[in-house]
Amino acid sequence: MNQGFLENQFHLSERGTNVRTEIMAGLTTFMTMSYILIVNPSLLSQAGMDQGGVFTATIVSSIIAIILMAFLANLPFALAPGMGLNAFFVFTVVLQMGHPWQYALTAVFIEGVLFLLLSIFKVREALFDAIPIVLKKAVSVGIGLFIALIGLSSAGIVSSGDGVILTMGNLISKNSAVFFFGLVLMAFLTAKNVRGALLYGIVGSTILALILGVTSFPQGTIFSLPPSLGPVAFKIQWNNIFTLEMFSVMFTFLFVDIFDTVGTLTGVATKAKLLDENGKLPKIGQALLADAVGTACGALLGTSTVTTFVESASGVADGGRTGLTSLSTAFFFFLSLFFFPIISIIPGAATAPALVMVGLFMMSPIVDINFDDFTESIPAFLTIAMMPFAYSIAEGISFGMISYVFLKVLTGKQKEVSPLMYLLALVFILRYLKPLFGF
Q1: Is the dihedral of CA 371, 377, 382, 387 positive or negative?
Q2: How far apart are CA 241 and CA 325, in angstroms?
Q3: Per-residue pLDDT at 279
Q4: Which of residues 326 and 202 earns the better pLDDT score?
Q5: Where exactly are the transmembrane stretches of this chain (predicted)?
Q6: Helices and strands (H and E) in the chain: how many
């Protein structure tokens, strides 16, 4: 691509940037979010999915969504399968509810199509406005604790069994040594504002894992053609889609995806000074469209919900202002397709610290919750607590919504409850009553 084309396509001068700045910003964004290339296949493999296939699906779906973001919206945002949503996919839908991973992919696909329709017909704003802000904040915090628990559990730092719900695991082992080394390294680099802190932490702890014998070097070359999508692509199941349980699963994916995406877009756009005089983000519809298409394509290819990454803020901080930043990120994703042999040696103990750190990053909205208003703080607390305690994001959302509606009505504050909230609370109540009445 020549300079003139890039200028005309991305309006570099208008936004006070240049090609070199945009490419370097894209590299920075890639470095800060590249841990997903390791963590996502590792997590989804616990649902029985082929790790190599998920690796390829993760990259290809990310590239599709990022290219759409670059050319349709001209915004410096990158997308990939989101943390929290992949955990819900594995640990709630598959391992807790007992559904096959194909069922979970179907729910993600339906959510992506519905998100696409909501974006096209601009219904998303109504849905976003209908949910109280306190529950939006609480969901982020609860998912943070849930992800951190998964990380601690996968590293063996906490465990369950022998009649104990949760207990301290084995702190004196090779796995725990790898975990704590990675956690300290990530924490130190993050505190020093080093770009790619999580990736460097994963690499460092993997090196220690190789030294300790927790993992071993790949046989043969470290480069290869991308693993086949065959084991995971186009595995949609159409049976049992018209059920309350499928609605509950699909709605949870949709709920988290919408609020995570809108929150990320708003926050990063504010940092990049891309909002207009009315505080709105130009071409937000196109940005949401890229997100929705990425999710639908990702489900077809074989991965969990694709969403806009808050790590895009790192590229913005390095000067990224246009879609050329995101296009550059897509290029680095493409290059990583050929490194699966070396990525596949990374053990769970090396990725677990990244889950704990991501959990920390998702906790920040808790400072915005008003704990003095118990009609808001109690539903928020139930939302936050039930996610790790029930080991389910869906249960946290259900308890939060139901308790919010009941408390507001019982205290005479029913005017604060939107009609859609009543409907959603009723759906979640019916979901709990289903085994009792058999409907």
Answers
A1: negative
A2: 39
A3: 61
A4: 326
A5: 21-40, 52-72, 101-121, 133-159, 171-190, 197-217, 331-361, 381-407, 419-437
A6: 19, 4
